[in-house]
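Design a sequence for this backbone.
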């Protein structure tokens, strides 16, 4: 049974350098329409439309160094292929690394336009436009 509420409430990624991570996400996520949320009392930083369905950064709870998960990825919805390209450019300009340039992927079909990056902590991110039509792509 589907509800109006999204199934994912929030995502938390660990970081050992919150200031660096904030600079990266402040540059990348507004491109996709996600705004910085008020900082949590414990110093966490978050982005989203509301505290629900949001992304939060914080040091790991167990006090161990932050690490990325092998096979773990956070994918963000993009409204256009231009947003995907802007996301990719901003990520690379702010300390991210390329994991797959903007474009379609044969495995997902011609209407799935995506770019993959890693943030400065090594977390894999994607921005995907799921109704891509090359006739509508001006860039």
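Sequence:
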């Amino acid at each position: 049974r589907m509800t109006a509420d999204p199934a994912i409430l929030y995502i938390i990624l660990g970081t050992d350098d919150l200031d660096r991570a904030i600079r990266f996400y402040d540059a990348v996520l507004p491109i996709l329409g996600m705004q910085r949320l008020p900082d949590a009392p414990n110093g966490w930083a978050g982005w989203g439309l509301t505290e629900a369905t949001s992304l939060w950064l914080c040091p790991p709870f167990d006090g161990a160094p932050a690490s990325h998960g092998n096979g773990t990825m956070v994918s963000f919805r993009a409204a256009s292929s231009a947003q995907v390209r802007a996301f990719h450019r901003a990520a690379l300009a702010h300390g991210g690394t390329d994991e797959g340039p903007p474009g379609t992927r044969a495995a997902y079909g011609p209407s799935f336009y995506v770019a993959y990056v890693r943030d400065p902590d090594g977390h894999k991110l994607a921005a995907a436009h799921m109704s891509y039509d090359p006739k509508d792509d001006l860039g």
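The helical segments are 18-28, 81-93.
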